[in-house]
Model the fold of this input.
Amino acid sequence: MPFDSQLNLIDLVNAVNKELNTRIILVKGWGLSNVEQLSSNPNIKVVDHVPYDKLFPLVKAIIHHGGIGTIAACLKAGKPFLTCPVLHPLGDQHFWGTLAFQKGVGLEPLPLKKVTKEKFIESIRKLLSDSNLYLNAKKISEQLSNENGLAKAIEIIEKI
Done:
């Protein structure tokens, strides 16, 4: 999603990698450009796009803008997440991130306009270490896996 930020996101990604000693997969999408300086870091992989249903089950946690499609992919994969809403205070991203926070599968949203290096790194540190987030995300994933969504949709539609 295109966005404006006064924060240098490339420097922020490098700082997260250095301070938390963690590997990062950065999906460029539409919002990032000039990521060449990240390519020399073997712990950071930049990709233009990726199928979330294939990637998310393989990662520890996810940081994203808070769109419902990405949140659904996180929940299906059973992974906790941090939303950084681009459209804040407008739009639905903050709403979905807040709902995930209330359900215990994500951290409290950190709007991109309010991100500082310190807040971001501290949020990711918590995201990577809070075992309750992982347990709750796994439970919701299991519930989603056990639900026959098509049958449920047909049942609801036939009642109308």
In short: The longest strand covers residues 24-27.
